[in-house]
Design brief:
By secondary structure, the protein is α+β, with helices and mostly antiparallel strands. It has one domain (about 1-65). It has one helix at about 10-25; strands at about 1-5, 30, 45-50, 50-55. Strand 3 and strand 4 form a beta hairpin.
């Protein structure tokens, strides 16, 4: 589980995190407020007021809004 894993990282370090996630052979649960980070995910789970609101296949980053 990665909770805002790149929130305080410079672009070079953030790219390393991206590479590690991409190369990981398993499930990654990623918490983020950064729409750019969601471009590489397969499924988006949205939490609203502490409850699971929706689960969607990530067909396009245009589905993701703050």
């Amino acid at each position: 589980m990665l909770d805002e894993a790149d929130s305080n990282l410079d672009p070079k370090a953030s790219a390393i995190v991206d590479r590690i996630i991409a190369e990981h052979d398993g499930t990654v649960l990623l918490v983020t407020h950064n729409p750019e980070r969601l471009k590489a995910v397969d499924v988006v789970w949205r939490i609203d007021e502490g409850r699971l609101a929706t689960v969607e296949a990530n067909e396009s980053e245009s589905q993701v809004d703050n």
